[in-house]
Amino acid sequence: MMRPPRRLAAVIGGLALASCPSSAEAHLVTTGLGPLYDGLLHFALTPEDLVPVLALALLAGLRGVTQGRRALFVLPAAWLLGGVIGLTVHGGVSPGWTALSFVLLGGLVASDARLPLGATTLLAALLGLGHGYLNGSALAQPGPGAVGLLGSVAAVFTLVALAASFVVPLRTVWARVVVRVAGSWIAAIGLLLIGWAIRPGA
Amino acid sequence: MRRGSAGAWALALLAVLVWAPPVRAHVQQGQAAGFFTGLGHPVSGLDHVLAMIAVGLWGAQLGAPAIWLLPVTFPMVMALGGMVGLLGVPLPGVEVGIAASAILLGLAVMSALRPPLAAAVVVVGLFGIFHGHAHGTELPAGQSALLYSTGFVMATGCLHAVGIGVGLIHRWPWGQALLRAAGALVALAGVFFMWRAIA
């Protein structure tokens, strides 16, 4: 049971809060965060970007903590740089680049390639620059723009963190094979994408 | 709720259902169709389904490392065949090759054949090219290439997983007998497919 002085203090405190309300600004229009979430969702709903990032996270995760951490910071940084270039240049989207990243990264995951740290860093940088550029081009004005690019970078960081940290502790053969099967699926999709891109009449 | 009121609600609900227009809630029309068309394509033909499941059954019979090497290798080789098919490169005797895959894979499971790992991978990969080529030439136009391919590869992988899952009964004697019987059935179906391909 609350004692009277405390109750009085609580009532006064409540009245003070109620008498000085400020606007919640919970809606995205007032906060200006709409484009941030647009960029985040753009990445989440674009498998052309999402799947290669997932593949790189799986690849780095298979190689352990050090490579996972390296990918976690290099990829979003390169993504941001490539995105800024894309926002500025407004380049076109190349299906060939997407297919290539699917085949290369998926193949490396499928074969459980024992890449040195430098190679994983290079792959993360190239993937970030290439897909960041495509992402930045897609997000350019009148789209969500630079704030949207920040949203997509945050999404890339989150996905790499989640996927790599999920794979790093896997030790049993079966669990690692499941990751490799996922890689082979990604590579297979990439091969089919190459066929779709260069088939007669495409 | 009174009976009259309940009747009115039921009529209103019926009217809403009868005059229901499509929601059109998806931003990109046809994109989801691409995924589901791809997902449904490998399971639309019994010859493909039986061969894919037989790959899984055989892998389970052979044990490690074939049990995981085959499902890792097959999707990529099959996609390579699919790419060749998409490019319009002709491959003679595709239907015969698919029927032969069902016969030989069925016989391998029936006889619990244990060839060297490299030979098993080559055989399965060769059949994968035939299956992939057939899929590649049958891919419908107007679909989202990425989503269609994703659904297509996922369905094929899931068929392998079904085969491997069923094939795990290999550890029990009754399971081994059952697997061999399943292999015989796949081989018989393959003979039927072969007859249909060359008739």
Q: Could you give a quick summary of the protein structure above?
A:
The complex is a heterodimer of chains A (202) and B (199). Chain A is mainly α and 202 residues long.
Describe the structure.
The complex is a heterodimer of chains A (202) and B (199). The model of chain A has no long low-confidence stretch (mean pLDDT 87). Chain A has helices at residues 4-19, 28-31, 34-44, 47-63, 65-89, 95-110, 117-139, 145-167, 173-198. In chain A, helix 4 packs antiparallel against helix 5. Chain A has one domain (32-198). Chain A has nine helices and no strands. Chain A is mainly α and 202 residues long. Chain B has one domain (32-198). Chain B has eight helices and no strands. Chain B has helices at residues 3-18, 31-40, 46-62, 66-86, 94-110, 117-138, 145-167, 173-198. Residues 23-30 of chain B have low confidence and may be disordered. The N and C termini of chain B lie far apart (67 Å). The longest helix of chain B is centred in the last third of the chain and has 26 residues, at 173-198. Chain B is mainly α and 199 residues long. Chain B is globular. At the A-B interface, helix 6 and helix 9 of A face helix 4 and helix 7 of B.
Number of domain units of chain B: 1
How would you describe the oligomerization state of the chains in this entry? heterodimer
* Low-confidence runs of at least 5 consecutive residues of chain B: 23-30
Identify low-pLDDT runs of chain A: none
Report the β-strand fraction of chain A as a percent range: under 5%
Task: List SSEs of chain A in N-to-C order.
Answer: HHHHHHHHH
- Give the C-alpha Rg of chain B: 22 Å
Give the integer mean of the pLDDT values of chain A. 87
Order of helices and strands of chain B: HHHHHHHH
Kindly report the greatest chain-chain contact and the residue count on each side.
A-B, 28 and 28 residues
Give a short account of the largest sheet of chain A: none
Q: Which short descriptors sum up this protein?
A:
heterodimer; A: 202 residues; mainly alpha; B: 199 residues; 8 helices
